[in-house]
Amino acid sequence: MLKVAVIGATGAVGQEFIVALNRHKWFQLTQVAASERSAGKKYVDALRDPSSGILRWHNREEVPEYVKNMVVSKVDDIKPENFDLIFTALESDDAMVIEPKFAKTTPVISTAAAFRYESDVPILIPGVNDDQTDLLKAQGKNRDWKGFVAPLPNCTTTGLAITLKPVLDKFGINKVIMTSMQALSGAGRSPGVIALDITDNVIPYIPKEEEKVQREAKKILGKFARNAITPADFRVSCTCTRVPVLDGHTETVFVETAEAAEPEDVKKEMLKFSKNVSIGKLPSAPKEYIVVHDDPTRPQPRIDRELNDGMTTAVGRLRKDTAFDNGIKYVLLSHNEKMGSAKGAVLLAELLKDKQIL
Questions:
Q1: What are 195-219's pLDDT values in tens digits?
Q2: Which of 58, 238, 249, 335 is labelled catalytic?
Q3: Which of 27, 105, 158, 343 is most buried, judged by most C-beta within 10 A?
Q4: Known catalytic residue: 249?
Q5: Residue 238 is a catalytic residue
Q6: Which of the residues 58, 155, 240, 293 is marked catalytic?
């Protein structure tokens, strides 16, 4: 068992880490840290609103017993050398300061954007760009770290990159146009703040989201050689919106392929990739990485987001697109708080352990 800590453990993403690490076969959570307001309290008490006493626990599962009485530490009191791995669920500004301190001695897996665009930092999705894990070793030389920082992609990028991977490998890609319909949980969980804005509404702008997706998809699907990633040479354009859905990001995707591709051929490649993906033996790996629905009314967030505990990307309405010479289009659904967040981070940790990087 590897000893791990979770930083930012009381927030929405931190809570997902707590659930994902419950009874894990390979990782033992031995310490949690959060803000000074929570420090010194038992974990379950730190979750309570100080004025109302209401438990601010956002997961559908109950607070796991193993963590209820664990005392929350200050971030500054964490001794990273005591751990094999540290998971962080921080805002990017905080991550920029805190994560390098930990990485001096210990590997860090992060949900923040702080280091995603650094040249020696891969944005990893297990089974999609596993070869880029070798770039983690370069951080030790470049930054004088014994550990590393391995960030997840933006949760909106995750399902897109997973579904584009088999298309790129078989047919090549010239252009990608995507519109997202993103769940409320992606905006955080502050009680009551967003409810009046989003009810009976669609918010057509999410700050910095489109730029993140456009950069990250090309980096994830780029070529790795000589300790450098050359971004994929296709173009990406996207529009990101917020919709009144609790969990699960839906995306409409238009792809101009380099070679002619029929929808049935694309479906075949997606399912072949799903069957042969390299992560099958990892504890958190889903039975299917991608499912492709023939029913034109799927995927739907309420029905499909929990497939294989939220770790499967669901695809539907796969069909020809007439705006491109070689065009296909489809709808995807990816769980932003599971595969796109903490549980995806745990899956990445499993991959790194399996490759003996941890």
A1: 778 889 999 999 999 999 999 999 9
A2: 249
A3: 158
A4: yes
A5: no
A6: 155
